[in-house]
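Sequence only, no structure available. Ideas?
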Amino acid sequence: QVPLVESGGGLVQAGGSLRLSCAVSGSIFGINPTGWYRQAPGSQRELVALISSGGSTNYADSVKGRFTISRDNAKNTVSLQMNSLKPEDTAVYYCNGRRLLSSGYVNYWGQGTQVTVSS
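Reply:
I predicted one. Tokens follow.
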């Protein structure tokens, strides 16, 4: 079972909005969702936005002012509100989570959700 489950991707015109959500599936105990990454065809996976348990955020320069990350600690979910979408935002978006073990942090990923922005 995939440890993190994303939803909310789709096809939207430039200037439109989408909201992505990520939930911990419960298959592995102790995963803390941390944020979103994306990967476009032929490109490496890149950071989009991160959020700490305390609510501190960090955004890629390319999405600042357009995307907003939020979390619900009670539900152990993170969301990404994407406004003013551009064709260059087209990518598969992945939710990232971490679990602290005695040996350090272990990263977990969702299966990804496709976001396509048409011009």
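Residues 14 and 104 are 41 Å apart (CA to CA).
Hope that gets you unstuck.
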